[in-house]
Amino acid sequence: MSDPEASRVAAKRPAGPSRGGATGPPSKTKAEKRAEAKAARARALARRKRRAVLTTAGSAVAVVAVVVGLVAWIAYAISQTETPVATPSADPAPAVTESTAPFPPVPAGADPALSTKPAATAGTGPVTALKATPIVQGAGAAVQAGQTITVNYVGVTYADGQEFDSSWNSAQPFTFQLGAGNVIQGWDQGLVGATVGSRIQLDIPADLAYGDNPSGGQPAGTLRFIVDILSAS
Fold first, then answer.
1. What average pLDDT is seen over the chain?
2. Is 80 exposed, middle or buried (0-12, 13-18, 19+ CB in 10 A)?
C-alpha cells in the first residue's frame, strides 16, 4: 500500500488506546462542573467565616486586656494618693480621768464619825435663840469670821425632822466665806469658834434662818443643821 493510501486508511480508524494501554481522564459533564464550582464556593465561604470569627475573638481579647490594664492602673493611682492610716503612737498621751478623791475629805486625825452621814432628827421644845451643840469635838484650829471653810451638812425642819437639804446626797462638800453674809445668819454666827474636825448641831430660830414665810422654796420656821467642819483657811 502506497503512503497516500495508508494515510487515508489511518484517518478512518477510530482512535485507539495510547501507548502503554492507559486511557486519559474522562471528560466531566456540566452538572459535575457546576457541583465542583458550588463546593469550591462553599469552601471559600467557610474560610472567610473562620477568619471573621478569629478576628472577632482577637478583638474581644484585646478589649478585655485593655479594660483589665485600665482597672489595674486606676487602683494603683488611688493607692498612691490615699491618705495613709495613722498608726497608734508608741507613747500615747495619758487619758483624762475624773477625780478619785475620797468623799468626804475628812481632815487627818479627825474622828472617823465624820466619814458617815449623821442622822438628824426632830427637836423638842421651843427654840428662841441660836444654839450650837458640839457632837464631835475636833482637834483642829478654831475657825474665825472671814475665813473660807469647807463643810458637810444635813438640814431638817426642827418640828418633824424632815430633811430638806444635804451635801451628802450630792457627795459634794460646801465651801463659803464665814461671816460674809453668803449663808443664813445661824451659820455665820453659830460656826464661829468651832474647831476644824468638829461636828456641830445648830438649832436655828426662824429669824436667823429663812423666816416664817420664806419665798423661793426655802423651809419655814425653826431649823436644825448638823455641820461637819472639814477645813478652814
1. 79
2. exposed
